[in-house]
Design a protein that fits this description.
The protein contains 5 helices and no strands. The chain has about 140 residues and is mostly helical.
Length: about 140
């Protein structure tokens, strides 16, 4: 392959990468479940290998990193993080209540089991103490 052909291929790859990155950033802002801003996703979308991305297109890698950082600092993410913290706190509170409820029912089960065992022992003693007799119900 000549230098000129390699240069054209590199330019075409760079163009595909930039278009793919633009598409990913746009989709990330538009959809409820955005695609991940990763090198793998970018390369899949552009149709080039990750090795080629890192070796020949460091500027695109920097742009990808910048886009990723921008979305991490995005205000929607801050609101989402705050909402997730509130949800997490509510779930922890519910978990505490659930654990208390489980402890309560476990203690109640243990108490009931002990009462049944005691009743079974008492019934066995009563049966041993009284000899069963067959009684006719008809006269």
């Amino acid at each position: 392959m000549t230098k000129q052909a390699r240069g054209a291929t590199k330019t075409a790859s760079a163009q595909r990468l930039r278009e793919a990155l633009t598409t990913m950033v746009r989709q990330r802002g538009d959809s409820a479940s955005p695609p991940a801003l990763t090198a793998t996703a970018l390369c899949d979308l552009a149709g080039i290998s990750r090795n080629a991305l890192y070796r020949y297109h460091p500027d695109v890698v920097q742009a990808l990193h910048a886009a990723h950082q921008k979305h991490l600092r995005h205000p929607d993410n801050a609101g989402r993080a705050a909402r997730l913290r509130r949800d997490n706190a509510a779930l922890r509170e519910q978990l505490t209540k659930l654990a208390a409820l489980v402890d309560h029912y476990f203690a109640a089960w243990q108490e009931t089991r002990l009462q049944l065992e005691r009743r079974d022992r008492e019934l066995a003693e009563v049966r041993r103490a009284h000899k069963p007799q067959v009684v006719s119900l008809q006269r």
